Amino acid sequence: MARNVDKSSVPAVTVPRLALYLRKLRELKAQGTARISSQHLAELIDLNPAQIRKDFSYFGEFGTRGVGYEVQRLEEEIAKCLGLWRSWSVIILGAGKLGRALVQYRGFAEYQFNVVGVFDNSEHVIGANYGAGRVRSVAELEEFCAQQPVDIAMITVPAAVAEETIDKAVAAGVRAVLNFAPVKVHVPADVVIRQVDLSSELMFLSFYLDRERE
Amino acid sequence: MARNVDKSSVPAVTVPRLALYLRKLRELKAQGTARISSQHLAELIDLNPAQIRKDFSYFGEFGTRGVGYEVQRLEEEIAKCLGLWRSWSVIILGAGKLGRALVQYRGFAEYQFNVVGVFDNSEHVIGANYGAGRVRSVAELEEFCAQQPVDIAMITVPAAVAEETIDKAVAAGVRAVLNFAPVKVHVPADVVIRQVDLSSELMFLSFYLDRERE
User: Do both B93 and B196 map to the same domain?
Assistant: First the structure.
């Protein structure tokens, strides 16, 4: 069914909204809601109904005017489009505080993102177990990835070693990176990278707080 | 000096780029670089030079054609614009794994975001110290905020209680929220909220991984 959606037509800015829709549709399904209008959904997630209709148009025309969208069908189509019809293997590179917190973050497994390995360079943490097996040395990364498929690497090492760590993951065959280190890293064109920059999020807030007080 | 920049003219989509520029300019300053062209900066941070020139135009005309921008002056102007001329007090609501990891995340203090308090509802963690004083009960939040200014609340409670927790922070006078709970929460118009949605970031990656394999 996902094959019906031409994913190359879905713009990158739309993808985070798909994740938002998916979460809300799952909630509605769990509550027993069978259909929802773009208007009602827009109120629930604070978006423009026209935007929602445009985004849903990628999934074909199974919304009916005055009746709304079928919640379950739409939820299934979006999940497939996001690649959630299968599970994905995730490794965490950097077993510091943030890395350890992420190992057991429940929100990942809920969508079948499974942490299969944790790696670090420090002898202080190699061998310890924070929830996804013992922490391995980064030197074992290539062998590990050769033995089992790894889809995504989450980078929680210090900024100074983020680039070399990402290079190692890419060399080992990883094709998707979620970088928590506050440094922009170049990757080959066939690798997709997203950055979670927590300080930058705080600066967004301080920008507005400071503006209000002017 | 920051008063010279009309912050209301800076669009929201520009603000995260300002944070990116700031980080790179600080790096360049530390390396002793006095001037940089938009072209060179564009290469360093993988953006379009025209975009950079447009963004910098908010800070007045102190780039000179063929000579480039003054690194230190630009860095200072951007920092001021982002509200970083002062420090900001941050509280963390939710002392679970993620909350504890954030307490000691070094990237925050670097920009003078100071964690001044950690709150939780669970008796198992109230009283424990993960790095910013003992964990307080959420019931103490209002009194705490009355006694010292709190600018920003980071929300690391479970999704099911995120809304009520944010409501409590807002009622206590907090005007900026960084929400890590995977749920969209409505706040009053005078409160600024940003969401860090880790599952959604992973779905962005799985979308592209899945597309490649089609």
Answer: yes
Whichever domain contains B148, its CATH number is 3.40.50.720
Residues A117 and A18 in one domain: no
pTM (predicted TM-score): 0.81
Lowest model confidence (mean pLDDT) among A51-55, A171-175, B163-167: A51-55
More confident residue, B98 or A152: A152
By Cβ distance, the residue of B22, B98, B151 closest to A209 is B151
Would residue A211 count as lying in a domain?
no
Q: Of A29, A48, A81, which residue sits at a domain end?
A: A81
Cβ partners under 8 Å of residue B19, min gap 6: A197, A199, A200, A203, A204, B82
Residue % of chain B over a pLDDT of 70: 94
Give residue-wise pLDDT tens across range B169-184: 999 999 999 999 988 8
Residue A197 touches partner B, C-beta closer than 8 Å: yes
Residue of A nearest to B44 (CA): A184
Burial class (CB within 10 angstroms; exposed 0-12, middle 13-18, buried 19+) of B43: exposed
Cα–Cα dist B41/B63, whole Å: 13
The CATH number of residue A45's host domain is 1.10.10.10
Q: Interhelix angle for B15-30 vs B38-45, to 10°?
A: 100
Q: What is the DSSP string of A103-122?
A: HT-HHHHTTTEEEEEEEES-
Strands B192-195 vs B176-179: parallel, antiparallel or unpaired: parallel
**pLDDT tens digit string along A70-104?**
999 999 999 999 999 999 999 999 999 889 988 87
Given B81, B101, B123, the domain boundary residue is B81
Q: What is the pLDDT of residue A3?
A: 43
Domain range for A109 is: 88-200
3-state secondary structure at position A207: helix
Provide the domain count of chain B: 2
Spatial separation of the C-alpha atoms in residues A100 and B141, rounded to whole Å? 28
The mean-pLDDT minimum among A51-65, B35-49, B113-127, B187-201 falls in A51-65
Report the complex ipTM.
0.90
Chain B (10-69) residues lying within 8 Å, Cβ to Cβ, of chain A? 10, 15-16, 18-20, 22-24, 45-46
Average pLDDT estimate for A180-203: 91
A90 touches chain B (CB under 8 A): yes
CB contact (8 A) between residue A107 and residue B182: yes
- Find out whether B102 and B109 touch, Cβ atoms under 8 Å: no
